[in-house]
């Protein structure tokens, strides 16, 4: 189930990656399109800037119209052609001023449409009621009525049609026609078409709207890209975690399957032994019955023989007596024959008794073996139950770990969200800081203007005071009768001068005080922002200094260790690191320069595999001395080394193992001889076997023997 889920997640990951590829491809297309649009906007802006100071210049025809449907843009551009770049002006005098300016600044040639002279035919030919006809070009655009004649001059009576076949169907030569793809059918019969790049004839308003749409789409795609990246990171992390857990579980499951297979094999062996034992037991039972029957018969024979022996004994005695009495030799010989036969039967009976005891002992041994095998079967069954329980426990533990992983991923996602929010706040603060700086500069300029104005007012007041002093009456009063005409004349002159002074702003001092207070407030804000800016710069400079110091300290320490370690691994050789930019190390890289024993100085790319290995190990151990790690894993690092260099590496690892743990995978005896503990791995029948090695020499002898 987990593997199916993992496969589904990987398939989903591919879909998300494909979606990301499409989004990025579209972003690249938008960036290219924006570059094109911005270049056209810049061109339009440049054209407008040239004639900005000349009154009566309205812009190009393309600037003054708007295409209603984006589907018709290419057709309108083809219909208007170069005329869309003509500049619309009020009259021929304005056109002359523009042309003079172009000559003066050597800006090339342009065409102008004076509105007071241009003739735009307002009549259109009959509209063809045929399939494929769209409309006349003039009806597909919007424009100010003031510029109707200029737009009609540019577009004429051009008919927009759907495609090439539609133009043929309507009739070549009956109309000036343009297809939606931009093919042009002149009334003269000339047809223009082919691969068409964007002509860029439409004006600034079109491109500003186009740029706005592209910016909006790019922003939307950027947000989508970030969402997809977050989703990709989460998916990759989840898949990597699940793959790791799955590998561990597969390894455990493989071990369990091996144990289960071993148990099943042993069970089969036990079952086979039990079956054979049962068969043998059945045979023994049958044999026992046969032997019991045989014993019974033997006993009967024995009883018969004993009875017969008894009779023979009596008969023997009778014969002896008879023989003694009669001395018949034939009876004696018969007696000897019967006696021998009796002895033979007695010996056979004893042999049967011994065989019976042996069979009974064998039956007892088999029964004991059956009991032992049964107990072993019960033990193996118990082990299998324990393994199954362990498997279930591992599955439960895995589910718990998956839940923890999901919780951690959720926390990581929230942290990313918080990070994004903080970054947004920082961007907002930076924007606010920029706005305040602009406002501060504006206020500073305003305060400067007010200060200059106040200075002018104060100077004017001083001049007025000086004039009043000059006009003030001094000395003794003249005779009234004699001075009345002069006084009237002087009064009239003073009144005229007062009129020339104009109205006096009685709030000038108050306004000046307010503006001065505002200026001081903004000046205080400016000083505070300047102090904060300087503090930030100082902090950045301090961080850069610390970073550079830390880098140089680490670099020098590692470089010293590198030279010492490489000279140990390669006696007579030299190695060192060199920064590409001594003044600013972070703007360049670091080169590793090595001089192997008996060779010239070489860069890493030109060295052999063994030399690269020694250089890489020297760098690793040099870094380890500066910032030690408690654990190192080397996988066949001696593969490209000869025996002497491998021995040097072994000596170095042995020395470094006093402060760190090293696990080294090697196929070389010389490196293995330095290990504190050896673990062997062999493969038989496609199955790996791991075993401890107590004595390397014994393993090597076994290898030589094998």
List its traits.
13 helices; SMC_hinge; 17 strands; 3-stranded mixed sheet; alpha+beta; 5-stranded mixed sheet; Alpha-Beta Plaits; SMC_hinge_sf; Rossmann fold; 706 residues
Describe the protein:
- This is Chromosome segregation protein SMC.
- Residues 55-171 form the SMC hinge domain.
- With 706 residues, this protein is of the alpha+beta class.
- Among the domains are: 2-202, Alpha-Beta Plaits, CATH 3.30.70.1620; 243-413; 528-627, Rossmann fold (3-Layer(aba) Sandwich), CATH 3.40.50.300.
- The protein has helices at residues 2-50, 73-80, 92-105, 148-155, 164-170, 204-326, 329-471, 480-501, 508-569, 609-626, 643-656, 669-672, 696-705; strands at residues 57-60, 65-67, 87-89, 112-114, 133-136, 141-143, 159-161, 177-179, 184-185, 191-192, 574-579, 590-595, 602-603, 631-635, 661-665, 678-684, 687-693.
- A five-stranded mixed sheet has the order 5-7-8-9-10, with helices on both faces.
- Helix 1 packs antiparallel against helix 6 (204-326).
């Amino acid at each position: 189930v987990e593997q199916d889920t993992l496969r589904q997640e990987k398939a989903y990951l591919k879909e998300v990656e494909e979606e990301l590829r499409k989004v990025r491809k579209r972003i690249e297309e938008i960036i290219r399109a924006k570059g094109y649009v911005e270049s056209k906007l810049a061109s339009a802006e440049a054209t407008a800037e040239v004639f900005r100071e000349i009154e009566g210049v309205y812009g190009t025809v393309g600037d003054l119209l708007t295409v209603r449907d984006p589907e018709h843009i290419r057709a309108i551009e083809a219909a208007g052609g170069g005329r869309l770049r003509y500049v619309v002006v009020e009259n021929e005098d304005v056109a002359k001023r523009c042309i003079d300016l172009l000559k003066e600044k050597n800006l090339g040639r342009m065409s102008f449409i004076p509105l007071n002279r241009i003739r735009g035919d307002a009549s259109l030919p009959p509209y063809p009621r045929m399939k494929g006809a769209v409309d006349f070009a003039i009806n597909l655009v919007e424009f100010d009525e003031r510029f109707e004649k200029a737009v009609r001059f540019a577009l004429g009576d051009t008919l927009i049609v759907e495609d090439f076949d539609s133009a043929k169907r309507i009739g070549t030569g009956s109309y000036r026609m343009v297809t939606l793809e931009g093919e042009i059918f002149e009334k003269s019969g000339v047809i223009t078409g082919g691969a068409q790049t964007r002509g860029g004839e439409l004006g600034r308003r079109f491109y500003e709207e186009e740029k706005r749409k592209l910016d909006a789409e790019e922003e939307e795609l950027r947000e989508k890209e970030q969402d997809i990246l977050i989703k990709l990171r989460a998916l990759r992390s989840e898949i990597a975690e699940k793959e790791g857990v799955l590998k561990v579980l597969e390894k455990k499951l493989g071990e369990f399957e091996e144990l289960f297979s071993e148990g099943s094999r042993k069970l089969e062996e036990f079952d086979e032994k039990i079956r054979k034992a049962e068969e043998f037991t059945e045979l023994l039972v049958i044999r026992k019955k046969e032997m019991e029957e045989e014993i019974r018969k033997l006993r009967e024979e024995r009883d018969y023989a004993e009875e017969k022996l008894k009779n023979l004994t009596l008969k023997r005695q009778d014969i002896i007596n008879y023989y003694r009495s009669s001395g018949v030799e034939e009876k004696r010989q018969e007696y000897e024959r019967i006696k021998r036969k009796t002895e033979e039967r007695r010996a056979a009976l004893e042999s049967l008794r011994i065989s019976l005891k042996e069979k009974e002992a064998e039956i007892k041994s088999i029964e004991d073996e059956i009991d032992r095998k049964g107990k072993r079967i019960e033990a193996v069954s118990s082990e299998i139950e324990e393994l199954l329980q362990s498997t279930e426990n591992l599955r439960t533990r895995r589910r718990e770990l998956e839940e923890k992983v999901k919780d951690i991923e959720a926390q990581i996602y929230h942290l990313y969200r918080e990070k994004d929010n903080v970054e947004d706040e920082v961007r907002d603060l930076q924007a606010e800081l920029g706005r305040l700086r602009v406002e501060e500069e504006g206020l500073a300029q305003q305060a400067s203007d007010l200060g200059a104005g106040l200075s002018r007012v104060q100077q004017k007041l001083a001049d007025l005071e000086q004039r009043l002093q000059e006009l003030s009456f001094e000395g003794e009063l003249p005779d009234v009768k004699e001075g009345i005409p002069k006084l009237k004349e002087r009064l009239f002159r003073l009144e005229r001068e007062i009129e020339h002074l104009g109205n006096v702003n009685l709030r000038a001092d108050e306004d000046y005080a307010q503006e001065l207070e505002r200026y001081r407030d903004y000046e205080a804000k400016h000083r505070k922002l300047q102090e904060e800016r300087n503090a930030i710069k100082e902090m950045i400079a301090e961080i850069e200094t610390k970073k550079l110091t830390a880098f140089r300290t680490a670099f020098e320490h590692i470089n010293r260790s590198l030279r010492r370690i490489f000279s140990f691994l390669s006696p007579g050789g030299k190695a060192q690191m060199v920064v590409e930019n001594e003044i600013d190390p972070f703007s360049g890289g670091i080169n590793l320069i090595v001089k192997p024993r008996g060779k010239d100085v070489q860069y890493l790319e030109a060295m052999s595999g063994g030399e690269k290995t020694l250089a890489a190990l020297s760098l690793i151990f040099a870094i380890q001395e500066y910032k030690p790690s408690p654990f190192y894993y080397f996988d066949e690092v001696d593969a490209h080394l000869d025996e002497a260099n491998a021995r040097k590496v072994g000596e170095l690892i042995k020395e470094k193992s006093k402060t760190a743990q090293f696990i080294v995978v090697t196929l070389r005896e010389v490196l293995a001889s330095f290990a504190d503990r050896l673990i062997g791995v062999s493969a038989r029948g496609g199955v790996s076997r791991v075993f401890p090695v107590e004595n390397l020499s014994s393993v090597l002898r076994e290898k030589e023997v094998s």
